[in-house]
Amino acid sequence: MKKITSIVLILIINTLHSNISFADQNKNIDHITKNLRCLICQGQSVYDSQSDFALSMKKLIQIKIKEGNTEDEIYKFLKEKYGEWIVYEPEVNKNTIFLWGLPLILFIFGGLLIIRKVTIK
Amino acid sequence: MKNNKIFYFIVSLIVAIFFVLLLGLKEEKNYSPQSENKKLNNSISLKELYSGKNIFLNDLLLENELNLINIWASWCLPCKAEHPYLINLNERFDINLIGINYKDNLDNSKKFLSDLGNPYDEVLVDSDGIKSIELGAIGVPETYLINNEYKIIKKFIGPLDQDDYENIISLIKK
User: Fold this and answer.
1) Which residues are bridge partners to B151 per DSSP?
2) A49, A88, B9, B165: which could form a disulfide with A54 (CB 3.0–4.6 Å)?
């Protein structure tokens, strides 16, 4: 009886564990594909697109995750193939510094203006 | 006086932004990835269409010749349109032509080649499109001209036309 109970318990734990890791893996694929631009339907992410390119890309990412690649490694691999454009969130470099810096400059400028107005009053 | 200066500065800034945005509207929006001068990934292996054997793509590339890799599918109409150019290239020039059959039914792809002629020295199969992504492709048809150092010297996205055909010939003759 004890043996049967332990076998059933092991089976339940095993099923739960594989379900959790499967859900985690899917969550990871969704997260990565949402940050990738579909190069066929350029207004959509790979996650949203149903183009052949996007479907293959989702499969490739699934394989890469199974092989143990991290999110950054996957982005690096795809950037080597397709360039920086493939990711929605570009990295900070000399070409994107203005893009990243502009909101900060505007924020500081706006803040200074408000402070000036308040202190004048 | 100071207020006037600020006013003129803001107006000129708005006008400048307007013109920048106007110029941006006229620019080509479709992005095509640059693959020129990139070396081919040497770990890509695919099945051969007729024998089903696994072959490394690099093993098929010839060191002393220009290599042309063409990604195609029987369901792709533009592939049908560019096919005569590939047949011509194979007949007229000493070029190593490798076909990669993309997400296709194998019987349909074999029929496509027997009906329209087979310009390829080898035909490989990419059944799920993953190997094409490893090559840097975005769809079909796509053609890569590769030199003897396994570097991509020219990439053609979309069907080859007369201009592309002449461009390939001039690169072969160089």
Assistant:
1) B39
2) A49
Check if B67 contacts A (Cβ < 8 Å): no
Q: Nearest CA to CA, how far is A63 from chain B (Å)?
A: 10
Q: Which two tokens stand for residue A8?
A: 């059933």
DSSP of A77-114, one letter per residue? Answer: HHHHHH-GGGBSSPPPSTTTHHHHHHHHHHHHHHHHHH
Residue A60 has pLDDT above 90, yes or no: yes
Instruction: Return the structure tokens found at A34.
Output: 């949402």
Q: What's the pTM value of the predicted model, to 2 decimals? A: 0.77
Tell which of A50, A52, A85, A99 to mutate to test the B interface (max B CBs under 10 Å). A52
Max Cα distance, chain B (Å)? 84
Strands across the sheet containing B54-56: B54-56, B45-48, B122-126, B96-102, B67-72, B142-146, B152-157
Query: Cβ-count burial of A38 within 10 angstroms (0-12 exposed, 13-18 middle, 19+ buried)?
Result: buried
